[in-house]
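User: Fold this; tokens only.

Assistant: Input:
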Amino acid sequence: MTQTTTPAAMPDFATALGEIAFEAGKIILGHYGEDHTPVRRKEDHSPVTAADEEAEAHILRALSRLEPGAAVIAEEEVAAGHIAKIGARFFLVDPLDGTKEFLNRNGEFTVNIAEIRDGVPVSGVVYAPACNRLFIGDAEAGAFEIATDGGVYAPQKARAIAARAPAADGLVAVASRSHRDYKTEEWLASYKVKNFLSAGSSLKFCLVASGEADIYPRLGRTMEWDTAAGHAVLAAAGGSVCDLDGKALSYGKTEAGFANPFFVARGRI
């Protein structure tokens, strides 16, 4: 369900976050066409590339101009041992969510930026530069998609999106392209699922937010920067992201090292 909105429907702050993500995506695409991408392994053995690091550096600079002094928890900064002291309001950044998808050249990687207030993601941007899809969620204004065809950021062409109620003949479930396993299949067995979609990175949240899917369970390890932006988009679209006990996912869990519990993202179910 989509509709064209007026420019006034897009809050200035969310629009600015979208532009930061868009510019980071251009940096990533500059590396995407390279014949060989050097990869190194972090302490947790996950891959990192120059695209991750350069995109994150851009985002940190841009956020410092937009919100001077604001605390930012960013994936590569945390991996390097640089963990900002956070308060009630801070930002979570994953400059290249889906590095495996980036390396496999399947296009399903994203730039994630989220604003957190009192543990809640109130504004977020998910940008998939290789797919020309940029999603913005704002707790007050709602959720939007901005097409970026032609390499142009055009927030004046934003379209409102909304999570859907499931069809009577069953749900469309979306699962990780890199992490789908028997636990997920077993968990979904209690639902009437008519179709499965596979997607990488935070695109899974956005497929639910845009009414292209109904449910996304994640029964594996994720970090807050993996989910906050997509959570913001889905919540703004009328959906939810809760742990397996039905409690809304919260952010700023320093005692857990910013790790998430298992969770389920739902549309209007």
